[in-house]
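Action item from last meeting closed. Structure (777 res):
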């Protein structure tokens, strides 16, 4: 034990050296961002469309260039970006460069973005090291790579990582100029490094986010944190050294120039005259209104009207879910640093607060007036957290004004907030899958799992981090007593554990979350399955637009067909045929195939199915094989005593469920129906267990909502399986009667499907049918 403690102390001491801390940050970020880049397929259609538009496969034929009519071209000449536009073009340039320079593959297209993510993490760690101690850089690196806004942006083509990267480099350079190393030689080298960082940041930031998001935000943050250079005037008047304020003065002047340029390119003065539509706001007979033309500095068009889909909490949601779970600590860290006695701590607290705030304001304005963007201020949160936590862990016997007396309360708040965000992500996981797509929501595949349901891992990691921080902050004590030292050691161990779990979460995003979701959101796995199973003479038929995915992920040349009828015809050929068809076509295809055998070889993709007329070498995953049949079911445990029919269309064949259940158990109810005539409409199955109380969650969409009732046809046999929960001790024991039926509409306008035939003792006055009773024990 003593040896382990000595090793831990030695490791902590080593991390106190800046070059060791920088190397650790490099390794931590590199391990998360680079391995397995080409494993996950491109999410469709979002990533696929970006790749096909900006970096299609090198052997793909060039798409025809659309040329608008001359009149239309003249009217839109100022409303479209020119082909050589530079602002906000970094992502498309990067993936095209990766394809041409590195490899014509998903890895090649993603690698430049991963490099930008690495530079972002290193710049953030460098800012923390300059503003605090070297260990602050390591903590910053761990926190930032665990943020989806960094890791997922660095590994996906729906990315604006260049904006954050440029901002981090600019802030690093400007902060570094205020904290240059001692000694003339080192000072000159340090100044040169800072100048290179600023120059690279300006280029990357402008190409990544344009003048507003990529330049005004980070430069303006340093200017605001330096009080717009006013202290330089005060020091000069009082005869004190004033050069340390020079970065803030320069930043202020640059921001003024950039804002003036943006205003010049996006607005125009209008003097109303008869016959012109009068501007809504005027002053002294003159109005300043957007000119509606593309701005080369902004990288877009500043619209006349706001996009009301984006409100102030749009960015808040992106911040909350994109910085989970540590983001909630950021504001606490910033305010704690700003009240410190240490000048560097106060400076970095002010810089990060201004950076995060300016990014939020700019994003709100940009989304309402230009278009969707990704919040680029997340490095500020990670830096503030890294510096603050390191200062907390380094403090010991004496209290300090930056360590809140209510640290236990802070820990409780942070822990509860993390758990709350993690719980929200269970219900609103789409917010995380759609983090980089704006209003184009990517529906989270609810069946996605890795040992357990995928989204449960998100909550589990957040819970562990929350408990570690809450208890670690709660037991922390200042003072020189033995008890205080033990509590500080315990608190340090818990916080270190929370950081270890945080790094595991970072690895989870890269190696579990993204690859698992790609099985559902990319056609790569479908096409790779075709390559594994096919033999000479086999065919591949594709219905639907998969872009260049077939060319990227399989060697077989596909046949593109426009309709389901052609898919059905292909599956009836004598040779083996693979077919990719939309999930929405399965019900109709099942009906049209009739008794002709077909097999679903891959069902996980959210958009497409892999179907074949032979199952050789695979397993049939057809969800309808056990739900919709064309022959009567072989065994039905319980059957009605008389004929039970709804609306002369649906006949009850029988059912199966246990007769006795215990409270707290789950059980399955199986019902069998024969379709006498096309049902039509969209009906929900009514399932009421009425007794001393009504069991919950009985009503449901039949056959797991795979095929709505409107697709049920004469001769079909429907087998519905629904799992029920009996609830806990709040449900009294006793007899419960099972009533079933079908209804449509919503409260208070429900309408039940009429019962057209049933024994009198099985029906009630509201078109329900009682089929059995169970005993709850």
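Sequence:
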């Amino acid at each position: 034990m003593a040896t382990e403690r000595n090793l831990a102390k030695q490791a902590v001491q080593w991390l106190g050296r800046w070059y060791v801390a920088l190397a650790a940050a490099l390794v931590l970020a590199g391990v998360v961002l680079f391995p397995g880049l080409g494993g996950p397929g491109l999410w469709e259609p979002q990533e696929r469309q970006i790749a096909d538009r900006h970096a299609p496969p090198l052997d793909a034929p060039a798409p025809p260039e659309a040329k608008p009519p001359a009149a239309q071209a003249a009217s839109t000449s100022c409303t479209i970006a020119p082909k050589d536009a530079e602002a906000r073009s970094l992502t498309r340039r990067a993936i095209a460069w990766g394809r041409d320079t590195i490899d014509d593959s998903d890895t090649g297209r993603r690698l430049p973005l991963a490099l930008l993510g690495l530079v972002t993490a290193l710049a953030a760690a460098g800012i923390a090291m300059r503003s605090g101690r070297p260990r602050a850089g390591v903590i910053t690196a761990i926190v930032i790579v665990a943020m989806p806004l960094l890791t997922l942006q660095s590994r996906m083509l729906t990315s604006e990582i260049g904006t954050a990267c440029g901002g981090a480099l600019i802030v690093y350079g400007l902060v570094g100029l205020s904290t240059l190393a001692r000694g003339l030689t080192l000072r000159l080298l340090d100044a040169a490094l800072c100048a290179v960082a600023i120059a690279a940041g300006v280029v990357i930031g402008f190409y990544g986010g344009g003048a507003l998001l990529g330049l005004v935000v980070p430069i303006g943050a340093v200017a605001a944190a330096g009080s717009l250079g006013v202290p330089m005037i005060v020091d000069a008047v009082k005869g004190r050294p004033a050069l340390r304020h020079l970065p803030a003065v320069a930043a202020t002047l640059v921001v003024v120039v950039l804002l003036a340029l943006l205003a010049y390119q996006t607005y125009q003065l209008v003097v109303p005259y008869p016959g012109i539509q009068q501007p809504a706001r005027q002053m002294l007979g003159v109005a300043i209104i957007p000119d509606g033309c593309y701005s080369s500095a902004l990288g877009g068009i500043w619209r006349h009207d706001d996009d009301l889909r984006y409100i102030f909490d749009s960015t808040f949601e992106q911040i909350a879910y994109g910085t989970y779970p540590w983001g909630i600590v950021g504001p606490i860290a910033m305010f704690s640093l700003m009240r410190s006695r240490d000048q560097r701590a106060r400076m970095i607290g002010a810089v990060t607060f201004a950076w995060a705030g300016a990014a939020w304001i700019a994003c709100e304005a940009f989304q309402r007036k230009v278009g969707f963007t990704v919040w680029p201020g997340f490095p500020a949160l990670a830096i503030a957290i890294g510096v603050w936590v390191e200062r907390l862990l380094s403090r010991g016997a004496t209290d300090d004004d930056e360590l809140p007396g209510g640290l236990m309360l802070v820990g409780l708040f942070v822990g509860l907030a993390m758990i709350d965000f993690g719980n929200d992500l269970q219900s609103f996981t789409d917010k995380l899958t759609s983090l980089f797509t704006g209003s184009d929501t990517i529906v989270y595949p609810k069946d996605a799992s890795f040992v357990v349901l995928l989204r449960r891992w998100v909550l589990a990691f957040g819970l562990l981090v929350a408990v570690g921080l809450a208890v670690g902050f709660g037991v922390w004590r200042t003072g020189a007593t033995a008890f205080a030292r033990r509590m500080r050691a315990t608190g340090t161990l818990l916080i270190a554990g929370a950081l270890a779990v945080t790094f595991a979460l970072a690895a989870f995003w890269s190696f579990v979350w993204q690859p698992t979701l790609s099985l559902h959101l990319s056609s790569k796995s479908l096409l790779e399955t075709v390559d594994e199973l096919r033999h000479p003479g086999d065919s591949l038929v594709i219905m639907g637009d998969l872009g260049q995915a077939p060319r990227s992920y399989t060697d077989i040349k596909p046949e593109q067909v426009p309709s389901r009828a052609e898919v059905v015809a292909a599956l009836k050929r004598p040779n083996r045929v693979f077919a990719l068809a939309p999930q929405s076509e399965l019900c109709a295809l099942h009906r049209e195939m009739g008794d002709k055998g077909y097999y679903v070889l891959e069902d996980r993709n959210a958009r497409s199915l892999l179907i074949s007329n032979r199952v050789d070498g695979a397993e049939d995953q057809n969800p309808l094989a056990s739900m919709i049949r064309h022959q009567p079911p072989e065994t039905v445990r319980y059957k009605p005593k008389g004929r039970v029919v709804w609306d002369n269309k649906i006949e009850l064949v029988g059912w199966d469920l246990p007769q006795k259940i215990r409270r707290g158990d789950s059980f399955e109810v199986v019902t069998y129906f024969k379709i006498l005539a096309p049902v039509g409409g969209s009906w929900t199955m009514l399932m009421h267990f009425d007794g001393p109380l009504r069991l919950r969650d009985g009503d449901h969409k039949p056959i797991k909502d795979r095929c709505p009732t409107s697709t049920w046809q004469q001769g079909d046999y429907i087998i519905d399986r629904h799992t029920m929960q009996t609830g806990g001790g709040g449900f009294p024991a006793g007899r419960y009667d099972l009533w079933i039926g079908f209804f449509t509409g919503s409260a208070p306008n429900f309408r039940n499907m009429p019962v057209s035939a049933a024994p009198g003792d099985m029906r009630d006055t509201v078109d329900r049918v009682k089929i059995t009773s169970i005993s709850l024990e």
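Note appended to the action item: The chain has 24 helices and 22 strands.
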